[in-house]
């Protein structure tokens, strides 16, 4: 495709921005909210950059109207946000708290008033701490609790939210939360990773069933994955096998049961030394395999994997943070290699072709299922200049490249219906605290002042025209 000419997105393409509750809301102990695993993790010494917490974050809980006005000013058509479970159902059990639900009802109303479609995610990693104390995702009961919570939110918001997502990136919840321990709750237990993955899948299936019973019939339900785009470092059989193993762990452990109703045989074989998988009960895979209305895909960068080379102390640069514990249960010997070229402030390589590959892969795997890019974006160390403006040409280049990749995927037949930039605001970037800025809107964490960056204005122009500008 020539890069010089502008390229058009189809009419009706959904242009959005995405955030997550713990990353922006703050108000951590207001209106009845109880701690989630992230509140606890932030208070565990050494886990989060400089001991940062989400206590205040972007103070979105109090400034949401200003944030909605910002989106309206950019002309956005959709907003992907998540609900804080322990804000609407403190401790993860028992009745809903009205004030918690009211917050999200007001938010959805405010979006609709501004002509922005609410796109709600039930779970973006903030498990109520009490449920973790009772065993967390490695125990089956957590999936059952999640379905109850889904009903509460569905009943309260079903009349005003058209797009529903059960889970965001279950890979991170299971593998980083219970394997490498770089995310909350910070456990490093290989078998718990597989149990957590299964119970997240089950939670998804049970929640879809529950939502179908309480939502109006025209509501759309999906899930968001962050599949690994794993490339073998050579075409050798051993390296291709290494890539296959990582694909099974990052992607197919979720997508196969959710989209096709069965765990992959190669995954079970690769992890046979870790678990006998007896936690999968008869009928579970059928429950997990619910009809969906869309699939959300998050993409940041590809991975380059190889079989272990004896004596080579090569990088374990899988982009998922550093830990003495590998998240890759049963395939710990796989090595990851740095890709050449430019990187973001996360150290993640910039390679839009991975997004095309990902979208085309799933469009072929599940023909007819609409796809959304539910997250894509980049962190750069943005600072306001003397006049207060924030120039972020690297982010514009990143977005431009990846939106071109979306068009390339569409040209190959992928039914991509929309794109949400990660993120609306600079926010609490998990273990990196406030040190990484992903927003198209700059947030001064001293004053909480919001300033749209040049990328926000660039994005607004794209939304207005529906045309991806060519290179100058
Ligand atoms: C994704 C998360 C999101 C954000 C981006 C950078 O894995 O879903 O919350 O942290 O990465």
Write the layout of secondary structure elements.
Layout: E1 7-8, E2 14-18, H1 21-24, H2 37-42, H3 60-74, E3 78-82, H4 85-88, H5 98-113, E4 117-123, H6 129-133, H7 141-157, E5 163-168, H8 170-180, H9 190-214, E6 220-225, E7 230-232, H10 237-260, H11 265-270, H12 284-288, E8 294-298, E9 303-306, E10 335-337, H13 353-365, E11 371-375, H14 393-411, E12 416-422, E13 441-443, E14 450-452, H15 454-465, E15 467-468
Parallel strand pairs: 2-3, 2-12, 3-4, 4-5, 5-6, 6-8, 7-9, 8-11, 11-12
Antiparallel strand pairs: 1-15, 9-10, 13-14
Helix pairs in contact: 3-5, 7-9, 8-9, 9-10, 13-14, 14-15
This protein binds beta-D-fucopyranose.
Task: Walk me through the structure.
The protein is an alpha/beta fold and 472 residues long. The protein has a single domain (7-466), classed as TIM Barrel (Alpha-Beta Barrel), CATH 3.20.20. The protein is built from 15 helices and 15 strands. It has helices at 21-24, 37-42, 60-74, 85-88, 98-113, 129-133, 141-157, 170-180, 190-214, 237-260, 265-270, 284-288, 353-365, 393-411, 454-465, and strands at 7-8, 14-18, 78-82, 117-123, 163-168, 220-225, 230-232, 294-298, 303-306, 335-337, 371-375, 416-422, 441-443, 450-452, 467-468. The strands form 4 sheets. Strands 2-3-4-5-6-8-11-12 form an 8-stranded parallel β-barrel, surrounded by 5 helices. Strand 11 (371-375), helix 14 and strand 12 (416-422) form a beta-alpha-beta unit. Helix 8 (170-180) packs antiparallel against helix 9 and helix 13 (353-365) runs parallel beside helix 14 (393-411). It is globular, with a radius of gyration of 21 Å. The two termini are 16 Å apart. Residues 20, 23, 168-169, 172, 226, 298, 375, 422, 429-430, 438 line the site of beta-D-fucopyranose.
